[in-house]
Amino acid sequence: MSLNENWDSDVRKDMSDSLDRIVVEDKKGEGVYRHDAEGSDDMPAHIKSSLIGASVSIPIQDGKLALGTWQGIWFLEFREGKHRRKVLATVQGERA
User: Fold this and answer.
1) Could you tell me whether strands 64-65 and 2-5 are parallel, antiparallel, or unpaired per DSSP bridges?
2) For residue range 25-43, what is the model confidence (pLDDT) as tens digits?
């Protein structure tokens, strides 16, 4: 998950392209990664997930998410195939 600009779709494309340049996929099977039993995108997905993180903290104000003007919550998937994912939301604080 990531909290980022969500208005311009080019931001998502640029983020994806940048992560692909930082963490390359071993499509030619040259042995870039030892962990490749689940496919050439598996280890790059682990690395990207570690770089981005698996959670975000978002303040709630007056019962609504207190996001910036252009911000949105991104649910990122780094694997090629479809996977079923669950989202767990934990709310902390006091009731007003």
Assistant:
1) unpaired
2) 999 989 999 999 899 999 9
The whole-angstrom separation of Cα 27 and Cα 41 is 8
Q: Do 47 and 23 touch, CB atoms closer than 8 A?
A: yes
Q: How confident is the model at residue 83 (pLDDT cuts 50, 70, 90)?
A: confident
Q: CA-CA distance, 58 to 72, in Å (whole number)?
A: 10
How many other C-beta atoms are found inside a 10 Å radius of the C-beta of residue 45? 19
In angstroms, what CA-CA distances link 52 with 6, 35, 37, 67?
16, 20, 23, 19
Q: Is the pLDDT of residue 69 over 90?
A: yes
Q: Give me the sign of the Cα torsion angle 33, 38, 41, 46.
A: negative
